[in-house]
């Protein structure tokens, strides 16, 4: 008995039902609008010489976007690029039919269709291609197309001039109508995404007749924060990283003159079009920028061109694969290289706030604190006044506790030699915000013979720290310095003959826990 092998074919051509998937893509409105702008820019560059021959050397691309909220909402995108050529027309409306030249902004063959369907079920395209004497018009009704499995649409044609060149896309009965703050964000992000083309004077983009512009933040000019007497420097440097095999990153990094939680961060470009980090959504990996309330997060910004890497099909993210960690390591090292260590300067540099800002912040802090004192403090003080202050000195040692970190230092002044142990604990069993021990100098057989030992312990697990501190050094350090100052003042006051000085610390710990840690 012999066996025979047979073969069959399987149709893997996408059906029109794929159009019904597009409304569920993870687009943001500005990236969806950007798909249409991308096509216009690509058409402009592909036919730039022909356009200049007809319109003159000073010709520049104009893209006009108009949004109307009436009658279910409508978006009209019109550009004066070269139009959709007859040789490209059928491919342009076929899903995932990639263009022959994928080196520009149109590379996946899906952008216009996916963005149009994401916005609306009904949309149309009217275009006249430069050098062709015909105007073409086509309409998509996605619901009807999908329900009836329609694979061919009627194309209407009308006479036109050989010198006409435009594309007009109309999206009707929008799934969701952008309004209010979303409209403002669309404008901000489009201006950010196409900032290089706008800056170079190649493209003019309008949204509801508002001309979109992008302004770079001013760069910090200042001395290094550790050497304030030195001449000021401009805190901006060029970045160039080469990973081989055609993958490289180049651009600049700088520090903002004015800190901003929304305006800092990197903008990542590919082929001069921003892919990631537009407007208030800057690319800020925690490995470099730390937490959202760090000073680096508020000052570091820049523009980086990423070449040799793929992007997501919605063109809102770089596809790093396993390379992002390597990129960030090299970038961090480059950012902090001498003689212009951007990260150190961002973390350490401080600007005295404006008087108006100080006054506003002070007023808010005062109102909140006054309310808490008024509502929470009286019962605590009443209990304190009923107890006689204690004469007790600090213990010789502190009880064992889980230590997050500690530092041992020596202080020498006059004929005194102190060993100071500063300890930060995360142990929830430690009830006091500030604890100290004070052990007099003793002669024994260790390296600290003859040294007085002072231990200062700050609890990071205290309710007061939970409310007002955080994990970043700049959040912990101010309170640690206050705690150290209180501890040292208590010891020196006791040395100076002040009685019952430890009562201040005991009462402070009670107030912080029972009253001043409240919202």
Automatic annotation (TrEMBL):
This is ATP-binding protein. It comes from Kouleothrix aurantiaca. SUPFAM superfamilies: ATPase domain of HSP90 chaperone/DNA topoisomerase II/histidine kinase.
